Amino acid sequence: MSDYQKPLILVSNDDGIFSNGIKALADVADEFGDVEIIAPDRQQSAVGHSITISTPLRARSFRIDNRFNGQAVSGTPADSVKLAHNQLMNRKPDLVVSGINHGSNAGINIIYSGTVSAATEGTILGYPSIAISCTDFDEDADLSGCKDAARKVIGYVLNHGLPKGVTLNLNAPSGPLKGIKWVRQANSRYVEEFEGRIDPHNRSYYWMTGKFQLLDEDEDNDISVIEKGYAALTPIQYDLTAYSLLDDLRDLDL
Question: What is the pTM of this model?
Answer without folding.
Answer: 0.92
